[in-house]
Amino acid sequence: MQIGIDQLAFYTPQTYLDLTDLAHARDEDPDKYRIGIGQSEQAVIPVTQDAVTLAANAASQIIDQDNRQQIAMVLFGTESGIDNSKSAAVYLKRLLNLPDNLRTVELKQACYGATAGLQFAHDYVLLHPDKQVLVIGSDIARYGLNTPGEVTQGGGAVAMTITADPRLLILDDASAFHSEDIMDFWRPLYRREALVDGRYSENVYIDFFKAVWQDYQGQTGRSIADFTAFAFHLPFTKMGLKGLRAILPEATAAQQETLMQNFEASRSYNRRVGNLYTGSLYLSLRSLFDNATLHTGQRIGLFSYGSGAEGEFLSGTISPEFDSKSSQQWFEHFFASRKQLSVAEYEAVFNRQLPAHDVLLDTSDDDARFVLKGIQHDQRQYLDRSKKAVTDQ
């Protein structure tokens, strides 16, 4: 039975910062960001969006009357959860009007959470081929103003439906994974901004990638010659390039050229959005689908990494029903309609924090379908503009 990714959608707010402007404001050479880091723009997330609304705005693109009753689980990968007890998945379930007879679980292991959800979903659908699983990766990446990590901020959400006979990517059964207790990146409960040992984290990323790639090859007997492209977790896009370069010598000159071309296609969206944490790998995959020339049956490699640390290499083949035209059109419209913020405007948005008490937020500048309306009695209030009513949680 063939199981994999049937639909893959993305959402982030339309406000963004041009990193050339940020470089000038921080007295840096713009090429340090554009080339050295591999980023050109960065999504700016307003206080009226959180992990739940970002996920709802992404998932509402692929959940409709045709598949709503088939959804059996919502697996929500995030490291930007809004409650220490209640999962973001159950908030999302209500916003999407999903049936009551389903599981709603939040998954956390840094940027790896959505991949855990993908693998759990695969195994569930294998046993229940008439059902679908909604997998989410939704996060807001924050390091602070005037910090080394500022250029790798961003945010947004990906939403995937995992089904039998998928229309995008058929997952292979084999995968290789590796975990160690490593302090390369962490987010203590008392902090809103992440802590990271940047150079160490880069080295661990490469070490984990090489380890799982070798393990995968040992399991399957496959080599780099069996792959048309690789998609990477991209905290910044130069990181994925470093990963690919670690194994490029295994390929012929002709294949190296193809793999490099496809890598450029895979990082097109990420370099204009920034870091998505759990969603990063799957935005890269969406970018690959939309911007590379792919054919049915070609094999794609995926490297998922979550600091702390967990790495996994998995793979899949392009479905016979693969078609990226509608997604390409969505992204073209999205990028064309974005609103560029000045550095001062970006800093003002960044510094606007959600208070730890009841509040009514001004949502007039947020044109998303789902927004965070405020807090009442310590409960977040969500607005679905398609219903013009507040959803109380």
Automatic annotation (TrEMBL):
Enzyme Commission code(s) on record: 2.3.3.10
UniProt xrefs under Pfam families: HMG_CoA_synt_C (PF08540), HMG_CoA_synt_N (PF01154)
Single GO term (MF): hydroxymethylglutaryl-CoA synthase activity
Binding residues annotated for (3S)-3-hydroxy-3-methylglutaryl-CoA, in chain numbering: 29, 143, 242, 275
Signal peptide, first to last residue: none
One record GO biological process: acetyl-CoA metabolic process
Annotated CDD domains: init_cond_enzymes (cd00827)
Alphabetized UniProt keyword annotations: Acyltransferase, Transferase
Domain Hydroxymethylglutaryl-coenzyme A synthase C-terminal: start-end pairs: 253-353
InterPro entries tied to this protein: HMG_CoA_synt_C_dom, HMG_CoA_synth_N, HMG_CoA_synthase_prok, Thiolase-like
Active-site residues, as the UniProt record annotates them: 79 (proton donor/acceptor), 111 (acyl-thioester intermediate), 233 (proton donor/acceptor)
SUPFAM superfamilies named among the record's database cross-references: Thiolase-like
Superkingdom per UniProt: Bacteria
Domain Hydroxymethylglutaryl-coenzyme A synthase N-terminal residues, every copy: 2-164
Family: Belongs to the thiolase-like superfamily. HMG-CoA synthase family.
Protein name: Hydroxymethylglutaryl-CoA synthase
Annotated organism of origin: Secundilactobacillus folii
